[in-house]
Design a protein that fits this description.
511 residues; mainly alpha; four-stranded mixed beta sheet; globular
Length: 511
């Protein structure tokens, strides 16, 4: 799974645009509304044409970027890159240049998406999706209102323009991946894999919208609103309870929901009995890490060559390995890769990732309390800047340190750094010569191999690095605890002041 920064930005922008519309988001909004900028609402057909044009622009841009990289392939500048005649250090790897162009394209696509949905009032138009299907001729007005108010369907339609643009941007990358690996990748398999890797973070968002729909359709939503209103009337701790519910949902989503969703999205199945499974079982037993099951991850032919460990705690912990990885690596190299993934679980990295989520949520709450920007789009830009800086810089440092410790843990468990180093070199070569390409969350394979071969042969250096990571993890956990308790303390103080204000108001009014 990857972190789709552009998709997160699109979600934040969508929420900002919806907030900007305010009361116009009701189903009884007038058909024509004049904005402060002086623009008038256009028809739904024009909005659809604008979305189609947006898709074409995104596809053409990524097509041009992919063709530029493929041109370098044909002229022998890929995967080794460009070297000068005197043998001086080569220029930037073509994939690094491609990633820069792709990041610029994603940022431009988000801005264009915001412009389209704002100018054509797309979040307002999606309330009328039943009329698009002609359901007004077969359903009563009450039934039409009920299904038209579905937050789940509206979530799909509101984000649909950007999700469609993302899928179109993946098509040119498939040809590039085929050129890098020298293997044919079916189009549907490629799109399916990219969607599963990218859209998993949307599961929680859609789950919340589904829950809202269920509460609304069963009548429980009115009861929930009534309880919330009563809580506010008596000055109840609604804000504190909301924060506790949010933190609880994050823990549940990371520890239980996410492993469950990934197993089903990737259609994981038990690893067949044989030499590989016996070897992995032996590595798991030697590591002392308790896992629930060992599963095969993803179908063959999809281009997926990876392994991972899911779940911060044993009851929901799974070891996953893709058939594409076992086809590439030797049994000894597969053992080393699994030992690396078990190192993440053994040294608490999965729980550390959960702390990252809690700290980010706490920082977002603090930012919301002290935000001095009033415009929704400006607020959305600030939130996105926080997420980008926090994840790409701060979280990136933590992730790279965890990867280094997992590499050393593999050498410690296997008894030698050579199998993992060999596996990394092979994957770098088969992925298009990406040995020196920097990764913000894994670092370059060249640097990882150098550290692995230098420190992986010395047990004292490995032990010293484990001690360093324990200190860093403890410091980060303390930072997370302070952020969480600060947010909860502010919310409790807010609720206590609300209780006091309500009591004072009642005493002032009198019987």
């Amino acid at each position: 799974m990857r972190i789709p920064f552009d998709l997160i930005a699109a979600l934040i922008a969508l929420q900002a645009v919806q907030e900007l519309f305010g009361n116009m988001l009701g189903r009884n909004a007038p058909d024509t509304v004049v904005y402060s900028a002086g623009q008038v609402d256009s028809s739904t057909g024009e909005a659809c044409l604008a979305i189609l044009g947006f898709w074409i622009i995104v596809w053409l841009y990524h097509e041009a970027v992919a063709r530029r990289t493929l041109w370098q392939v044909r002229w022998g500048r890929f995967p080794e890159g460009v070297k000068s005649a005197d043998g001086s250090p080569r220029k930037r790897h073509p994939l690094e240049t491609h990633d820069l162009y792709e990041a610029a394209g994603q940022a431009s696509a988000v801005l264009l998406y915001v412009l389209v949905i704002w100018y054509f009032r797309w979040p307002l138009k999606t309330y009328s999706w039943p009329e698009w299907l002609g359901l007004q001729h077969v359903l009563s007005e009450k039934a039409l209102d009920r299904i038209g108010s579905s937050t789940l369907v509206k979530a799909f339609l509101d984000l649909g323009p950007y999700a469609g643009a993302m899928m179109l941007s993946w098509l040119p990358k498939r040809r590039m991946a085929q050129a890098m690996t020298g293997r044919r990748i079916p189009r549907l398999s490629w799109l399916s894999l990219e969607a599963r890797l990218t859209f998993i973070p949307l599961a929680a968002w859609f789950a919340i919208n589904l829950l809202v729909d269920l509460l609304s359709f069963t009548g429980a939503g009115d009861a929930a609103d009534l309880l919330n209103d009563l809580s506010k009337e008596v000055g109840g701790p609604s804000e504190t309870l909301a924060l506790l519910a949010m933190f609880g949902f994050l823990v549940f989503a990371a520890a239980v929901l996410m492993p469950w969703v990934m197993l089903r999205i990737f259609r994981c199945r038990p690893l067949p009995d044989g030499d590989l499974k016996s070897r992995i079982d032996a590595v798991v037993k030697r590591s002392g890490v308790k896992v629930r099951r060992i599963l095969a991850w993803g179908p063959k032919g999809s281009g997926l060559a990876n392994a991972c460990v899911l779940g911060p705690w044993a009851p929901m912990r799974y070891v996953l390995i893709s058939p594409g990885l076992t086809d590439i690596l030797s049994p000894e190299e597969c053992e080393a890769v699994i030992a690396h993934e078990l190192g993440h679980a053994r040294h608490g990295h999965l729980a550390l990732l959960l702390a990252v989520l809690l700290s980010l949520a706490s920082l977002s709450e603090l930012l919301a309390r002290f935000m001095f920007f009033k415009h929704p789009l400006a607020q959305g830009a600030v939130y996105m800047l926080l997420i980008l800086v926090y994840l790409r810089i701060f979280f990136g440092i933590v992730m790279r340190a965890c990867e280094r410790e997992a590499d050393l843990a593999s050498a410690e468990l296997i008894g030698s750094p050579l199998p993992l180093a060999s596996a990394l070199e092979k994957l770098a070569r088969l992925s298009g010569g990406i040995r020196d390409v920097y990764s913000w969350h894994h670092d370059s394979i060249a640097k990882r191999v150098a550290v692995l071969m230098q420190d992986g042969l010395d047990p004292e250096r490995i032990a010293r690095y484990h001690r360093h990571m324990r200190r860093m993890s403890l410091g980060f956990l303390c930072f997370t605890a302070v952020a969480v308790f600060l947010v909860l303390g502010l919310s409790i103080a807010h609720d206590l002041l609300a209780v006091a204000a309500t009591a004072a108001s009642g005493a002032f009014v009198g019987p």
